[in-house]
Every structure is written in C-alpha cells, then in structure tokens.
Amino acid sequence: MQFVQTNMGEQVNRVLVDALGGFLKVEDVVNGAFELIEDESKAGACLWISKRKGMVYWPTSAKENKYLVYSPKTKKELVKNRFPSIQPPEYFHKMVVHTLSHNFRNATRLERVRLRLPIEPHNTLVKIIYAGVNASDVNFSSGRYFSVNSKEAASHLPFDAGFEAVGIVASVGDSVKHIKVGTSVALMTFGSYAEFVLVLLSMTCHYTTSMVPSIATNLELQIFWEALHISWIG
Length: 234
Fold this sequence. Notes:
InterPro entries: ADH-like_N (IPR013154), GroES-like_sf (IPR011032), Zn-ADH-like_protein (IPR051397). About 25% of the residues lie in helices and about 25% in strands. It is of the alpha+beta class. Strand 1 (about 45-50) and strand 2 (about 55-60) form a beta hairpin.
C-alpha cells in the first residue's frame, strides 16, 4: 500500500503513512502514467510505483514464465494471426438485467437477440473474447448507479450487463477509417457480457499485436487493464 500526497491522502494517520515509507508525490504518479502512454514497447506492462523502490515494471521475467500458458514459440506463431475475417452473426447471446437485485444471478438472464444491421456509420462491431468481472456489477444490477430512488432505477429495465472487455473488430461503420476488421481492441462500455457488442468508435482502445486477446493469459489481461486504467486517468 502507498499513499499519494493529495488533500485526501493527507487525512490518513501520519504514523501509518510514515510506516509505509511516506507519501508518493503526485508528480511521480503522473510521470509513471506518461511513461506507459508514450513508450509503445511498454504496452501490456504494469508499472509499480513506490516510495522505497521507485518505478518497477511487473511482472518480472520469473513471474511471467511462471504464469505463461503458452510457450514463447507457440505464442509468437499465434500472434501472427490477425483475424482477417469474422462473420457477423444473425443472432448472438448477451446478459441482460431484468430485475433490480444485488444478487447478480437472480437479476440477470441470458438472451438470444438479433444483431441490428446495418451498423451505424461511427460504430464498430466487436466480437468479445474476454469480459472483465467487476465488483461493481452487483451495484449496477441493483440499480444503484441510476438513482437512489428505486422506482426511477426500475424505469431503466431491462438493460445490458458488463463494463469491460477485450475482443476483435468484426465489422465497422462507413465513417470508421483507422480501425480495420481483425483489429484487437479493449472496451469500457455497458453491455460487455455478450458474444458481440456494438460500440461507438470513441469507446474502443487499441491493443498492440503482442497482446492479441485469443492468446492472452489471465495475468496478461490483469496487467493490460492496470496500464489501460492509468493511461485513461492520465
């Protein structure tokens, strides 16, 4: 644990802060964020910033080898697969919240729905490969993000579940020029618990070719999201 020297951080008991090595400066966090953003070779890395050790990239080589699912040779070969074509389906499955409840299982059900075509000009259709399970899912399914008024929250039903995902672009609208079919992308958008999702171009973030979702391990996805969150904060 490490505290950053902000107005909120300074409310923490100073004895605890000192025991952990003192405050981190805001500038240190900002510099770390820019290092991840500006150096493409660091894509997929997690930068650990602490008072005692400074900036340390994680995982170390030893940790990476420990958790790697595929051998380096196999991984290198699979990265070459750029998914040149993904056939958009007529129907797909998605998770939908039908009842406001903190119990996610009771609040949701799996539905088979028709894909809305044609795709809007500024939209991209993404084939979801991995979706992030978020602690906030239960707050979302209970309606807490809509309103403190349960009646008003219920007026939003039904709504799609899921916040975060990584996947492959399956199709693009006519106005989308710089993202092509087969591109690996990350998303932060509602409705990520689905086989496919339609999103605005502004809601996608590129992967690098070294982080193709089809071969990403759980460890790599965790590292990627750490870096992605820092990048967006920066």
